[in-house]
Amino acid sequence: MSKPKQIVPESDKRWLHDGEVIWRYVPLRTLFFYLNGQVFIPSVAKLRAGDPFEGEFYENIAWFNAAFQKHYGAAASRVDEWIIKKLCSDPERKLIQINKNDPNGANAAAMVLRKHYFDFVRRTRFAWCWFQSNRESAAMWSVYGNQGVAIKTTVGRLSALFETAGGNFIYGRMTYVDYESGVSTEFDPSRESDYYLLLRPFFLKRKEFESEKEIRFVTAGNDRDERKGILLTNLVAKEWISAIRLWPGLNAGEAASILKAVEHFMPQVDCQKSELFSGPDGSFIDLIDVFNGRTGSAADSSWTDGQDGIPVPLKAL
Question: Could you count the other beta carbons within 10 Å of the beta carbon of residue 244?
Answer without folding.
Answer: 23
